Every structure is written in structure tokens, then in C-alpha cells.
């Protein structure tokens, strides 16, 4: 198992290198000049020449690539053109929002999608099956921004002044200021003295509220997270439910399931014990693949729900030609993606020993 | 080429010492100057000096009647000189500013919100609400949802379709901004068919501006009759548009006649010619729905047999191409930096303007040059009439609309308003329900050292914290005293003297004096100054409004 | 043993099998309600797309300004249907007018062309390349598999919308480029799904048997392995067509899809998104059109999956 995992990790290195180069090249293929995109349309040529000089944009492209690779391998993500702050700081500040959103959405999608798929497959062609698949079909065909706005309207405006009201945007209530866990635990007094990792973790609101046992923050954070998680999670939910259903349907007709049934095992043991485990294989792939969809969904959802995650600044970064920012965020999301798929592959090996033995 | 003379002459010191009333007299008075004729210097500043602790004098290389309007701009707010030095001209200056304004920065949770608290030692009337919270969301619909759900007290820029919703909601109040901007159709007179004056005039007749404004612009907007927006000096109501008083059919007939005369009759396929219209898909106050307007112009010109292809371009590439004179036909606009004709007319049609409309017309450039050197408002006005007439007759572009927009607040907020230039002062507003005012705008401020910022969302936040020598009067846009209680100019408009207000304290408790003013300007002006750092170091507004930097960086 | 005879015999048997396969598939499909519903929706869509100019009541590009029976304000005017009590003096617009005061019904009708083209072409392109890559990688294994899959990993590691945005930004906005971007972005999904099926089937006894009998690789891959990979591929592809239509809407939301004044549902939807509460018809009708289209493909795909499953036939 460990050699399998190690080999799998070794294989990610060329992938990461490929991502670095592709991102770099693609950004430079985009027409337009970063200077005017960043400094505004009224920047003079004189100002833009100085700008190119400062950021090394007037060097030959290959030299720029080498400098960039060297920096990135040293873990230096450079300074954002547009924000004039280190990209790493921006990521520490904003990635927690996206992670929290993606994790909540994926949790919602998996926890709801797998049982729905199992029930639909088991009760094939029943009302519950047809209903679920209709719902799943509608779920995948609904634009995220439309769903987000409808949810926000319903829970924010229609249910206003009822116990079910949910805030239509933001991560926490206006003006709310909760103590980070490192201050409560006495590790560091303020953001100035805390390390990036501590700040990063403390900005995961739900985690921070659990670490500090702050119920107010937990409720505040959860109330703000429910709607965006539902909006982002709907498409993966529908995909997971469909995949689970079709995969389980297939497995249920396999010989060994018949054998298990013939042996007199209870239906419960047959379906949940034998069939589901085998049917999970393609579903796990889909869950792994959903991460990309989640990040894409996050670009639109963060806009609708006013969340300050990486999705939104990534899109703004592309239109603003903020090379360093886009490169930095892409590499970080790409690494998370590679890690998640690594986990998926290892899980694969666990679920299907044949792959591991190969 | 170092041309700066950094002088602290003894006589200034002595002069200052002799003014016994001034407590800070013992301090050195700063003074900076340059040689206007120095090689590579394009700026209009000659010197900035602290005459005494409470007096600052600016000397310009050429007369500038709009100088007070520029000085009032929020990019030129006054920073404490000690803090400028302590921060090295950047860093903390950007994230924890110290100003003189009615609010000070309490906490900026980047990405999420910005919390301001009342400055209890404010020199003027203190703010009413103890706390103001800035939040942001790029989607107008989402902002309105927040307002309707009661989570926020005010929002910027409702979507066009939501104006009616807000007006119909008894809990909400709508405040309109009239447009201090212009949306125009640019035509390049070096590229056929726009090299023909008849074609340009025909299009000026053909475009139904009223239809565009009535259907695609929010309330508060108006159809343009000339390039200048009506509320800004330089607008001359005497100059009527070419199609004044004509019906739509008459206009189309006139346009068809002109096109025939220009040698573009209707061909066998029912069309006259094909052109491409370029624009960028960026929403601005002057053009709230670019795609829809482009499609309407396409449909309008189709009536005349002109086939228009729509081509959306990336914003930066679009601006570069139009400036370089590469685009034949395009949609663009301009919003006021400061309320004066020079910011509109000279920038687009003056001698130094770009090639965006092709060759320049002496009939337009001459009067503009003359007007910019006159001190007398009445005389300048007469010359702008000439300039506006020439622009109308030669049609370098077709001015279409002055786009309005607005802000919406909870109806209970007392003193709520929307400023034409987007500079709302939250210190004047009161929320009877609680102790804070939550405001949601389109985007997060980028940095709070506004000398080095350009976007309106950022400037609005700075304006609560920092103040300039002058300010724009609410309603008229006329410059009025802010940190300067009084000011005067020499007869030739090259020397401007400002007297500072007594008793102004910065948020850190230090007193405002002339050195703070001089240093605040010089770090922007002198590109070689050790404190010329900022957020990205471009100080775009200074070079844009005052012509250029002292010691400009050598460009290769 | 006479090899010529046996070859002919086996070919004959195969043709027989193929024929029976298609007949059975058709029979299965006819019995499957969701497949029939899906098929009807798609057939209807195709008919609408072909006869759009006959069905549409107005020119989809013509604003209604100044025409008889049109009372201003025109943009975003609500639907007016005479049968449902709308004033007969008013011009009839089944779905109302859009932001440019054009007849929304006619635009929705013409929009079917664009969406069908985007959905079908991008998915066919992606599935052809993706399946091929997955088959090659999964069957060949080793370094070939490694290279292909690492390439796919690089592509997958970019969030798809981001990759599509970048492709469109480089090539310039427009329908063809959006189509291409959506296709490229979805290649890895098909490659991975195919590959995982190949890996599963490759070790099955009948494949090993076939290989030990000396069958050629391409034959094993296309005749024995590909059919087994079809089931998950079809599920993926049906969702993929819907996904492509949605992805086009996402690109349009960001201003990178079909260019005006082309009627395209995603563009219509996002153009009108600020009017979601004030003029819901602008968002409702294109939204329904997208949903129905996606639904049609999904239902048909479900049915196909059931009908294609060889094990199902034995039940």
C-alpha cells in the first residue's frame, strides 16, 4: 500500500510542473497589457514602462519563465500586481472561505447523494426512483447563479422575520468580530505575531468556533454557509446520486450478488455490505472530479453570495491580467486537487485490490 | 538629469519665526521646487512651499483655472508628515491610515468588511453614527437582497430594473445621481467611411439618442446634446445638437440624404456598407448595459442599410487600440475626475489628446488652448461655446447619453443622500434603530492610501478617513474649504496660496501644519523622493491631473 | 481445420449478433418510458431547430420600437397572449419582449439551434478524443498510460470553468471558441471514465481468454472492451451535453460565449439576470428551455443505459 501511495505521489511531480508551465504560458497568451488592466485606463506609457521594469515584464519570456519556476519551487508566490501584497498572504486570507464552501458543499452532496442513489437503485422504477432522478436532472440543469439568487431571495427576503430566515450574503454578520483560537489559547496575541498557518486555520470560521467553543460564531458561520453550500452542492449532488444509482444497478445484477442472495444473506447485508462497496468505485472517481466543479461553481457562487474566496479574485485576476495572483491561486488549487485525487486513487486501491496489485 | 533644488532658505525660517501667533514656528518649513523647462519634465508644478506653519503656496508652470477643483480631489488628501516618514510611504499607510476625517479605521477584515469608528476629536461637526461598516458585493441583485432583508442600511448602484422595485417599497428610499459623465460613439476620421464628414453627420442624425436613454438607462440619466455633461462647467446650453427639434422620420430621411451624397447609396443587396462596432463588456456609470446598447445601435443603423458587426474586446486591448487610432467605430465614455471642461474637452479634443478620433481639427484645438489659459469664467465660457459648436459640426464622435445612477437606503436613515461624484459622507447620516450604519458597495476598497488609488469604491472609503485642502460642495460641485479655510490665486493663475484651518488634529493626536501638506504633495510629485512608494507606486491621478512627475523615471 | 470456412462462419455469426443487438436495443428503448420521453423532447427540439424560421412569430433580431400595437415602455415587456385576455389592440408576444425589445418567443425558438450545436458538437469532440485516450491508456498501461493520464491530470487540476475562461480569453469570445473550450475541458472526464472501465474489464476472464487466443489488440479493445466501457460513458455523456449547455451559460454569464445579437439561451439568461425579480419571464423562458433540453438528453441517456446493459436483457 505504501509503495503504491509513494509511486502515486511521485507521479504528481510532473503534473505539478506541467501545471506551472501551462498556467504561465496561458496567461501570457491572453491579449492585453497587465499595466493598464491594473493601473487603470489612464496610465501613461511612461508609467507603464516603469511598471514593466519593476515587475520584470520587459525581460525575454523564457527568462521570465525560469525566474517564475525558480521562485515557485522555493515556495515564493511573488506579489500580486493588482493588490500589491504577497500572493501567499492573499491565499491565507481567502482560501479558507473557498475551502469551507467547497467542503460544506461536498459534504452536503455526498451525504445526500449516496443515500438517494442507493434508494433509487434499490427501488428501481418506483416513484421514489423517478422522483429522485427527475430532481437530479433538474439539479444538474439549473444554472448555479440562478439557484443561488432564488435561495437567497427565498430565505433572505420571503422568510424574513421568521425563524428560518438566513442571511443572503457574507460569511459573518456585519461588525461581528470573534477571537481567533490562537489568541484564546494564548499561542499568539494578534495577527501580527501569529504564523500564516495559524491565521489560515483561524479563518476557517467553523473550525475556529469549534476550537474556541464559541457557539455564537458557530451558529453565525453556519447560518451564512448553508445557502451557498446548497447552491454549489446541487450539481455534484445530482451527479453523485445518478452515478451511485447506475453503478449500483449494474452491481446488483452481478453474479456474486445473486450468490450472496442465494446464500440467504439478508437484503440489508447484500445491498449495503456487498453491492454498495463495489458500486462506490466509480462514485469515488466522480466525487474526486467534483472538486473542480466545486471551484468553478465557487467563482459564480462567491459572486452571488458576496464571499471573499479565491474563486472571485481568480476570475477578477484573469480579466485584470494579474499574472502572479492567477499563477499563485492556480498552483494552490491544483495542488489541493492533486492531493484529493491522490486520496481518491488510494481509496480506489482499497476498494479494488486488483489495481493495487498491478 | 537631476533638476530638483531642495531648498530651505533661511528667510522662510525667519519669516515663520516672526509670526508669533503660530505655535509650530520653530519647525523647519519645507519647500520644494523644480525647473519647468527641465528636460523630460512635463508637469505643471513649479514649487510647493510652506510659507509659514499655516500657509502653503503652490506655484505652477502654466495657468490652471481648474486648480481648486483638482486640489479638492480625494487623491490629494493630507497625510501626517511624521506618519508618511514612519511608514516609508507605503506599508501601514495603506492598511491603517491616519487622517483628519470624521471617521477613523477601526478594523479591516480584508475580503469581508471594513469597520470605521467616529473621530471624537473631529474639527467640524462630528459624525452622528458611532460606527460605519463597509461591505461589498459585485452583483446588484445580491446587494438589493441584503437591503430588503434588512441586513444593511444602504447600497450603491441598484440594477436598472430595480429602481422601480425600490421606489415601490415603503421601507426603502431611492436617491439619484445625475450623470457627470458622457457616453459617446467614437469614429476615426482616418478610416473609411468615417473619413467623410457627411457619413459622420449622417450617423449623428441617424442615432436615436432618446430611444437609447429612455429604454436602456436608469432614471436620472439624460440624452446628450453635447459632449459636456450639463452639471459641469463648460456645458453650453446655447449649442443645440444638429438634429434639434426633428422627428425620428425626419432624422432618418436627412441621414439617408447625407449618405447618398457621400457616395454610399443603397446597393442591390439592400445595404450601404458594413462596419464593425467595438466595445468592452465593462459596466460604467456612463454605460450601464453595454451589450444591450450595442445591439440597439446595430438595429438602428440596420434601418438605414448599414450593416454593423458587433465585436467585444478585452478592456485593456480595447483602450489601447482606440487610443492608438486603430478602431474605426466604437463605444466609449468618460467620467469626471474633477468638475471642469478641461477634464472633458482638452483630454479628448485638445492638442495633446490621443489619436482616438483620427486627425485633430484646428477649429477645435485652438479655442480649447485659449480657454485653458484664461482666468475669467465668463470669457472662458464664451470660448467653450465656439469649441462645442465646432465639435458638433465636425462630428469627431456622437455624444449619446449622460448616465445617471443611484443609491438606496432604508427609509428610516436620516440625512441619506447620493453624491453625483459618488463621494457620500456617511458622517451626515443617522440610523435611529442602532449605533451603526452598514453600507454595501460594488467592490472592496483596494488600499486606503488614496494618493495611489484610482477606483471610486476605494476613494469613497478614503474620503471618510482623510481630507483634502478643499472639497466639492454637495449639490453644486463647486470647490469649498475643507482643511484650508481660505485660498487665493495670483492674477495669472500660476500662484495659489492656501491658509490652513486652525485646530485640526490627526487621528493620532498630532496637529495639522503646512509641512504635512507640502510633504503629502511632494511624495506624489517627486518620483525620486524616498517616500514616493505608495501601493503600486504609480500615483496615476497626480500625473494625470498635474501633467507629470518631477524626476520622472528614465524610460528606455 | 479449414481456417477460411471458420472465419466466414464467425463473421456471419457476428453480423447476426449485431443485427439482433440493434433490434433488441430498439425494443428495450421502446419499453422504457424515460427513454421515450427523452427521445420525444429531443426530437421536438430538433424539429424546432430545423423549422425555426417557420415557427417563430417575429424576426428574432428586430426591436419592436415604433411598430403598431406596441405600447412603450417596450424593453422587458411582459408576455401578451390574446387568448389569455391580453388586450387585442396590443401586439401579441407569447413570451414578452427582451431587453432590446425583441420578441422573446422567436429568440427562444432560434436559440435551440445554438444550444444543440454547442451541446452535441462539444460533447462529440470531447468524447471521441477522451475515449480514445482512455482506451489507449487503460489497455496499454505502463508509460503510455502514465503520460496520457498525467496530461489529463494537468488539465483536470485546473477548475474547468477557469480553463475554459482562459481558452476563450486567448482565442477571443465567440460561439466557436466557447464550443472548443467546453470540449477541451471535458476531455479528461471521458478519458478517466473510459480508463477505469477498461481497467475493470481488462482482467475479466473473457478478455484474458481472447488475448491468449492471440486476438489483435485493437480488436480486443474495440470489440470486447469498448462495449463494456459504454455504459458509464453514456451516463457521463448525457450529463455532458447538459453540462456543455450549462457551461456555455456560465461562459455567457462572464461575457465569453455567443456574441450578440445571436439568440443563445445561456446568454439570454445571464443578460437578464439582474431582472430576475422584476421581469421573471426573461429568465424563466430561456431557463426552462435549457432545463428541458438537458432533461431530454438525460432521460434518453438513462434509457439507453438500461437498454444497452447486456445483463439487463437476461432478466
Strand content of chain B: 15-25%
CATH fold naming of the largest domain in chain A:
MetI-like fold
The CATH architecture category of the largest domain in chain B equals Roll
The CATH superfamily of the largest domain in chain A bears the name MetI-like
Through-space gap between termini of chain B: 14 Å
* Broad CATH class of the largest domain in chain A: Mainly Alpha
Radius of gyration of chain A, in angstroms, nearest whole number = 24 Å
> Architecture of the largest domain in chain A in CATH?
Orthogonal Bundle
Structural class of chain A: mainly alpha
* Uncertain residue segments of chain A: none
Termini separation of chain A comes to: 12 Å
The CATH homologous superfamily of the largest domain in chain B is called Dipeptide-binding Protein, Domain 3
CA radius of gyration of chain B: 25 Å
Number of domains of chain A: 3
Low-confidence stretches of chain B: 1-26
Total of DSSP H or I helical runs spanning 4+ residues of chain B: 17
Largest sheet, strands/sense/barrel of chain B? 7 strands, mixed
Q: Number of domains in the coordinates of chain B?
A: 3
Describe the protein.
The complex is a heterotrimer of chains A (358), B (556) and C (315). Chain A folds into three domains: 11-73, no CATH class; 87-178 and 214-351, MetI-like (MetI-like fold, Orthogonal Bundle), CATH 1.10.3720; 179-212, no CATH class. In chain A, 75% of the residues lie in helices and 0% in strands. Chain A has helices spanning 2-29, 34-39, 45-54, 61-73, 87-122, 127-140, 144-158, 181-184, 196-202, 205-211, 215-252, 255-262, 267-304, 310-319, 323-351, 353-357. The model of chain A has no long low-confidence stretch (mean pLDDT 80). Chain B has helices at 10-18, 67-71, 81-87, 92-95, 140-148, 162-168, 197-206, 209-216, 248-261, 290-302, 315-323, 341-349, 362-372, 377-394, 456-465, 514-525, 540-545, and strands at residues 5-6, 31-33, 45-52, 55-60, 103-109, 113-118, 131-136, 154-156, 172-177, 181-187, 222-223, 273-280, 306-313, 329-335, 397-402, 405-410, 436-441, 470-472, 479-481, 484-489, 495-500. In chain B, helix 7 (197-206) runs antiparallel to helix 9 (248-261) and helix 12 runs antiparallel to helix 13. Chain B is globular and about 80 Å long. Chain B is of the alpha+beta class. In chain B, strand 20 (484-489) and strand 21 (495-500) form a beta hairpin. Chain B has three domains: 10-93 and 466-545, no CATH class; 101-177 and 405-463, 3-Layer(aba) Sandwich (D-Maltodextrin-Binding Protein, domain 2), CATH 3.40.190.10; 181-397, Dipeptide-binding Protein, Domain 3 (Dipeptide-binding Protein, domain 3, Roll). A seven-stranded mixed beta sheet of chain B has the order 5-6-7-17-8-16-9, sandwiched between helices. In chain B, strands 1-2-3-4-21-20 form a six-stranded antiparallel beta sheet. Chain B has a four-stranded antiparallel beta sheet with strand order 11-15-10-14. The longest helix of chain B is centred in the last third of the chain and has 18 residues, at 377-394. In chain C, 73% of the residues lie in helices and 0% in strands. In chain C, helix 6 packs across helix 7. Chain C is elongated. Chain C starts with a helix and ends with a helix. Mean pLDDT of chain C is 80; it is low at 1-13.
Amino acid at each position: 500500500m505504501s509503495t503504491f501511495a509513494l509511486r502515486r505521489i511521485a507521479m504528481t511531480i510532473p503534473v505539478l510542473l506541467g501545471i506551472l508551465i501551462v498556467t504561465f504560458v496561458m496567461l501570457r497568451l491572453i491579449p492585453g497589457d497587465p499595466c493598464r488592466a491594473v493601473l487603470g485606463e489612464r496610465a501613461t506609457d511612461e508609467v507603464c514602462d516603469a511598471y514593466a521594469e519593476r515587475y520584470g515584464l520587459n525581460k525575454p519570456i523564457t527568462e521570465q519563465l525560469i525566474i517564475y519556476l525558480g521562485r515557485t519551487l522555493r515556495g515564493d508566490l511573488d506579489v500580486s500586481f493588482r493588490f500589491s501584497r504577497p500572493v501567499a498572504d492573499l491565499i491565507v486570507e481567502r482560501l479558507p472561505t473557498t475551502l469551507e464552501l467547497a467542503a460544506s458543499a461536498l459534504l452536503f452532496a455526498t451525504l445526500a447523494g449516496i443515500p438517494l442513489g442507493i434508494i433509487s437503485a434499490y427501488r428501481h422504477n418506483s416513484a421514489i426512483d423517478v422522483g429522485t432522478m427527475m430532481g437530479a436532472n433538474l439539479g444538474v440543469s439549473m444554472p448555479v447563479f440562478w439557484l443561488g439568487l432564488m435561495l437567497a431571495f427565498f430565505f433572505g427576503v420571503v422568510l424574513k422575520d421568521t425563524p428560518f430566515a438566513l442571511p443572503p450574503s457574507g460569511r459573518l454578520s456585519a461588525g461581528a468580530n470573534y477571537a481567533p483560537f490562537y489568541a484564546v489559547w494564548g499561542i499568539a496575541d494578534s495577527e501580527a505575531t501569529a504564523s500564516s498557518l495559524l491565521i489560515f486555520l483561524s479563518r476557517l470560521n467553523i473550525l475556529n468556533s469549534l476550537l474556541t467553543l464559541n457557539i455564537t460564531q458557530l451558529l453565525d458561520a453556519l447560518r451564512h454557509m448553508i445557502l451557498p453550500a446548497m447552491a454549489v452542492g446541487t450539481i455534484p449532488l445530482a451527479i453523485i446520486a445518478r452515478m451511485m444509482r447506475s453503478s449500483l444497478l449494474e452491481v446488483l445484477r452481478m453474479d456474486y450478488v445473486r450468490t450472496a442472495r442465494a446464500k440467504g444473506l439478508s437484503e440489508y447485508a447484500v445491498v449495503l455490505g456487498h453491492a454498495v462497496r463495489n458500486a462506490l468505485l466509480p462514485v469515488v472517481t466522480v466525487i474526486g472530479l467534483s472538486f473542480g466543479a466545486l471551484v468553478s461553481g465557487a467563482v459564480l457562487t462567491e459572486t452571488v453570495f458576496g464571499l471573499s474566496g479565491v474563486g472571485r479574485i481568480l476570475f477578477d485576476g484573469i480579466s485584470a491580467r494579474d499574472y502572479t495572483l492567477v499563477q499563485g491561486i492556480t498552483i494552490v488549487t491544483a495542488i489541493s486537487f492533486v492531493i484529493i485525487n491522490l486520496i481518491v486513487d488510494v481509496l480506489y486501491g482499497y476498494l479494488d485490490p486488483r489495481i493495487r496489485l498491478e | 538629469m537631476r533638476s530638483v533644488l531642495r531648498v530651505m532658505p533661511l528667510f522662510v525660517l525667519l519669516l515663520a519665526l516672526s509670526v508669533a501667533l503660530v505655535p509650530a514656528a520653530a519647525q523647519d518649513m519645507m519647500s520644494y521646487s523644480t525647473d519647468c523647462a527641465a528636460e523630460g519634465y512635463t508637469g505643471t508644478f513649479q514649487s510647493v512651499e510652506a510659507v509659514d506653519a499655516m500657509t502653503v503656496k503652490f506655484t505652477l508652470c502654466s495657468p490652471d483655472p481648474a486648480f481648486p477643483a483638482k486640489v479638492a480631489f480625494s487623491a490629494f488628501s493630507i497625510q501626517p508628515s511624521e506618519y508618511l516618514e514612519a511608514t516609508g510611504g507605503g506599508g501601514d499607510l495603506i492598511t491603517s491610515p491616519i487622517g483628519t476625517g470624521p471617521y477613523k479605521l477601526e478594523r479591516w477584515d480584508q475580503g469581508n468588511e471594513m469597520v470605521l469608528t467616529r473621530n471624537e476629536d473631529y474639527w467640524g461637526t462630528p459624525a452622528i453614527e458611532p460606527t460605519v461598516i463597509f461591505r461589498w458585493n459585485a452583483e446588484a441583485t445580491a446587494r438589493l437582497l441584503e437591503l430588503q432583508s434588512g441586513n444593511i442600511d444602504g447600497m450603491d448602484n441598484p440594477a436598472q430594473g430595480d429602481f422601480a422595485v425600490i421606489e415601490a417599497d415603503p421601507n426603502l428610499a431611492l436617491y439619484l445621481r445625475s450623470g457627470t459623465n458622457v457616453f459617446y460613439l467614437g469614429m476615426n476620421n482616418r478610416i473609411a467611411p468615417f473619413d467623410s464628414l457627411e457619413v459622420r453627420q449622417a450617423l449623428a442624425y441617424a442615432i436615436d439618442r432618446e430611444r437609447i436613454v429612455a429604454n436602456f438607462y436608469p432614471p436620472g440619466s439624460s440624452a446628450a446634446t453635447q459632449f459636456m455633461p450639463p452639471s459641469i462647467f463648460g456645458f453650453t446650453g446655447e449649442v443645440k445638437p444638429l438634429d434639434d427639434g426633428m422627428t425620428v422620420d425626419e432624422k432618418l430621411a436627412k441621414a439617408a440624404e447625407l449618405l447618398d451624397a457621400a457616395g454610399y447609396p443603397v446597393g442591390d443587396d439592400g445595404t450601404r456598407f458594413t462596419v464593425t462596432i467595438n466595445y468592452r463588456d465593462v459596466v460604467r456609470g456612463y454605460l450601464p448595459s453595454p451589450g444591450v446598447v450595442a445591439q440597439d445601435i446595430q438595429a438602428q443603423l440596420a434601418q438605414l442599410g448599414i450593416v454593423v458587426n458587433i465585436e467585444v474586446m478585452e478592456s485593456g486591448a480595447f483602450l489601447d487600440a482606440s487610443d492608438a487610432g486603430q478602431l474605426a467605430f466604437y463605444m466609449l465614455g468618460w467620467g469626471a475626475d474633477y468638475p471642469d471642461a478641461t477634464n472633458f474637452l482638452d483630454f479628448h479634443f485638445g492638442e495633446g489628446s490621443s489619436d482616438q478620433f483620427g486627425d485633430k481639427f484646428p477649429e477645435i484645438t485652438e479655442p480649447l488652448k485659449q480657454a485653458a489659459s484664461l482666468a475669467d469664467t465668463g470669457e472662458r465660457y464664451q470660448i467653450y461655446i465656439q469649441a462645442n459648436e465646432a465639435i458638433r459640426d465636425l462630428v469627431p464622435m456622437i455624444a449619446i447619453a449622460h448616465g445617471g445612477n443611484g443609491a438606496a437606503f432604508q427609509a428610516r436613515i436620516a440625512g441619506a443622500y447620493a453624491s453625483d461624484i459618488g463621494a457620500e459622507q456617511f458622517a451626515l447620516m443617522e440610523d435611529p434603530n442602532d449605533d451603526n450604519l452598514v453600507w454595501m458597495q460594488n467592490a472592496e476598497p483596494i488600499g486606503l492610501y488614496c494618493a495611489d488609488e484610482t477606483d471610486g469604491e476605494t476613494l469613497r472609503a478614503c474620503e471618510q478617513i482623510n481630507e483634502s485642502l478643499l472639497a466639492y460642495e454637495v449639490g453644486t460641485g463647486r470647490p469649498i474649504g475643507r482643511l484650508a479655510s481660505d485660498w487665493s490665486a495670483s492674477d495669472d493663475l500660476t500662484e495659489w496660496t492656501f491658509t490652513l484651518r486652525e485646530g485640526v488634529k490627526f487621528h493620532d493626536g498630532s496637529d495639522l501644519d503646512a509641512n504635512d501638506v507640502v510633504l503629502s504633495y511632494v511624495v506624489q510629485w517627486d518620483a525620486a523622493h524616498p517616500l514616493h512608494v505608495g501601493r503600486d507606486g504609480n500615483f496615476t491621478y497626480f500625473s494625470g491631473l498635474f501633467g507629470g512627475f518631477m524626476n520622472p523615471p528614465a524610460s528606455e | 481445420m479449414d481456417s477460411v470456412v471458420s472465419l466466414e462462419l464467425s463473421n456471419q455469426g457476428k453480423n447476426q449478433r449485431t443485427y439482433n443487438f440493434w433490434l433488441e436495443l430498439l425494443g428495450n428503448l421502446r419499453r422504457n418510458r424515460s427513454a421515450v420521453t427523452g427521445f420525444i423532447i429531443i426530437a421536438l427540439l430538433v424539429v424546432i431547430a430545423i423549422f425555426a424560421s417557420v415557427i417563430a412569430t417575429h424576426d428574432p433580431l428586430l426591436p419592436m420600437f415604433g411598430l403598431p400595437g406596441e405600447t412603450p415602455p417596450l424593453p422587458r415587456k411582459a408576455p401578451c397572449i390574446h387568448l389569455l385576455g391580453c388586450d387585442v389592440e396590443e401586439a401579441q408576444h407569447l413570451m414578452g419582449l427582451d431587453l432590446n425589445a425583441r420578441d422573446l418567443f422567436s429568440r427562444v425558438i432560434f436559440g435551440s439551434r445554438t444550444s444543440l450545436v454547442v451541446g452535441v458538437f462539444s460533447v462529440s469532440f470531447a468524447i471521441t478524443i477522451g475515449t480514445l485516450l482512455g482506451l489507449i491508456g487503460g489497455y496499454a498501461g505502463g508509460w503510455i498510460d502514465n503520460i496520457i493520464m498525467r496530461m489529463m491530470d494537468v488539465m483536470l487540476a485546473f477548475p474547468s470553468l477557469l480553463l475554459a475562461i482562459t481558452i476563450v480569453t486567448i482565442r477571443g469570445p465567440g460561439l466557436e471558441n466557447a464550443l472548443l473550450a467546453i470540449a477541451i475541458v471535458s476531455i479528461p472526464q471521458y478519458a478517466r471514465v473510459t480508463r477505469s472501465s477498461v481497467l475493470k474489464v481488462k482482467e475479466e476472464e473473457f478478455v484474458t481468454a481472447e488475448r491468449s487466443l492471440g486476438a489483435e489488440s485493437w480488436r480486443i479493445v474495440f470489440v470486447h472492451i469498448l462495449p463494456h466501457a459504454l455504459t458509464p460513458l453514456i451516463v457521463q455523456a448525457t450529463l455532458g451535453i447538459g453540462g456543455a449547455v450549462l457551461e456555455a451559460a456560465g461562459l455567457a454569464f462572464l461575457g465569453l460565449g455567443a456574441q450578440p445579437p445571436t439568440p443563445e439561451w445561456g446568454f439570454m439568461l445571464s443578460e437578464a439576470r439582474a431582472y430576475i425579480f422584476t421581469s421573471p419571464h426573461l429568465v424563466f423562458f430561456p431557463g426552462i428551455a435549457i432545463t428541458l433540453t438537458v432533461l431530454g438528453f438525460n432521460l434518453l441517456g438513462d434509457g439507453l443505459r438500461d437498454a444497452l446493459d447486456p445483463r439487463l436483457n437476461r432478466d
